[in-house]
Amino acid sequence: MNHSFTKRLSRNKAILLSITAILVLLVVLFFTFRNTILRKVINSKIQSVENKYNLNINYSDVGFSGLSTVNISRISVVPVNRDTLASVEAISVKIKPFDLLLNRLRFANLTVTRSLISLKRTGTISNYLFLLDQKKDTSVSIGPSEKDYGSRISVLVNAIFNHVPSTTVINEFKITASIDSNSFSFYFPRLQVSNRYFSTTARVTDDHASQNWKIAGLLD
After folding, report:
1. Are the C-beta atoms of residues 194 and 212 closer than 8 Å to each other?
2. What span, in angstroms and rounded, lies between the C-alpha atoms of 159 and 163?
3. pLDDT by residue (tens digit) across 72-91?
4. Which of 44, 57, 87, 97 falls between 20 and 30 A from 23, CA-CA?
5. How far is 177 from 179, CA to CA, in rounded Å?
6. Distance between the two ends of the chain, CA-based, in angstroms?
7. Is the dihedral of CA 81, 86, 90, 91 positive or negative?
8. CA distances for 195 relative to 25, 95, 124, 167, 168, angstroms
9. 91 within 8 A of 104, measured Cβ to Cβ
10. Residue pLDDT, tens place only, 154-209
11. Cα separations (Å) of 87 from 6, 105, 109, 113, 144?
12. Nearest CA to 190 among 170, 160, 214?
């Protein structure tokens, strides 16, 4: 075998081994510090939302379990100087770990446990109107003659399903609303989205009237 060829082959092997060693080291470092990186990315996203909507968003703990599952516990969303808007006992979601290095989060296989959205309004003071389009007239309250269960359920379901992955489990989800003298609640014990198909039963209460609903469909 030609001496120069053997020398080049040895040099190429050395380069390949060096690259492999660097990649292994980077992977080890990433998995060693991935929880720190995760908290930094999540806190950055939270701060952006807080600044945009004047909110306080807090969580008790966040971290990886397994290779790609992230668990977040006891989340609360509180508008500044207003009542709590939302709380969630626990969220478990799968992400692509190396997306964290690009400062982005993409979710799959989402599980949400014991979540509550509480809408409160007295006159012009509320904990949710900041989320609505400022061009809309928010001074009109809903009176008894304007109640429409179908349209309300449609709005709630769209709000839920437009922002969830195609594989999702939501346990014990509730929305309550207290708007001047009117009250409304929407609750389901469990909803599962699998292969984009979903179904659940829900309890809907509007003031003193209650109904049970069967909700099913296909995410598109």
Report:
1. no
2. 7
3. 999 999 998 899 999 999 99
4. 44
5. 6
6. 63
7. negative
8. 38, 18, 42, 6, 9
9. no
10. 665 666 666 667 688 999 999 999 988 889 999 999 988 888 888 899 999 988 88
11. 66, 21, 20, 10, 29
12. 170
pLDDT at 134: 45
H or E element that contains 179? strand 168-179
Query: Model pTM?
Result: 0.71
Q: What is the CA radius of gyration of the chain?
A: 24
Q: Which residue has the tokens 């806190």?
A: 43
The Cα diameter of the chain in Å comes to 94
Q: Which residue has the tokens 């446990």?
A: 113
For 78, the 3-state DSSP assignment is strand
As to burial, measured by CB atoms within 10 angstroms (0-12 exposed, 13-18 middle, 19+ buried), residue 129 is middle
Alpha carbons 76 and 57: distance in angstroms, whole number: 6
Tell me which residue has tokens 């808007």: 85
